[in-house]
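Reviewer 2 asked us to include a model.

Predict the structure of this chain.
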Amino acid sequence: MVLKQIFVALDGSENSSRALDHAIYLARQSQAVITGIFVIPMFSVNVAKPKTKLGQMFTESGKKILNDAKSRCAKNGILFYSKILCGNEGFKIVTFAKNKKADLVVMGSRGRSNVKEIFLGSVSHYVAHKSSIPVLIIK
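Predicted model (structure tokens):
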């Protein structure tokens, strides 16, 4: 498999940081670019424009996480793009990766919200089962 575009779901968790490390390794091996995706949960904001204080907090957090990822990629000679999306995390990751023709989606096995996983199922589980693009889940 030739990798040109690797998408990494980032949320600031340790597992998403490890996912970025693996994506950087794969990108270096195949000269691929990485796109970092941060999804603002649908429950927290108006999906069209996050204008609430909570929405602004998520947006600022996402920018910081993506800027940190960009710096880590730059130190390794990897071209990095970023995208902040609003909505259902799993659905947004699957849809964005498919529309942008990603070759691989890399993500952590668990994100920041343990309570949400108990009630709704994890984002990584959703992406692994719904994506037509290969998914690498990192523990």
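The helical segments are 14-30, 53-75, 89-99, 114-120, 123-130. Strands lie at 5-9, 33-41, 80-87, 104-108, 135-138. We have added this to the supplementary material.
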